[in-house]
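I'm stuck. Please check this protein.
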Amino acid sequence: MKHICRLAGILVVPLILASCGSPPDVIVVDDAGAPVAAAKVMPMAASVNYEQVLTDAKGQADIPDSSVQPLQPVQQIAVEKAGYTRQFIDFNQPKPIRVVLKP
């Protein structure tokens, strides 16, 4: 019985930790600090632009990891939305990266 309980603990703890989630890679807000939903976040490398992702209702987005983008690591991101000025941001910094879009 001890072994069954120990095994159950070994299996359940990783599931709980995985469900906690990790912080997003990018958080996009306007100059008042409000989240910007549906902003385009475009990952870029030296000679490759990867598929864009959109921010969610909280202004958050995740950039696919290098296993999905094996050619070159992401070096910077471009963030844009109609009515705001496009921002180019260095991706090699602590996450989440806070991007402030201004009109």
Notes: The chain has a mean pLDDT of 83. The two ends are 63 Å apart (CA to CA). Helices lie at 2-20.
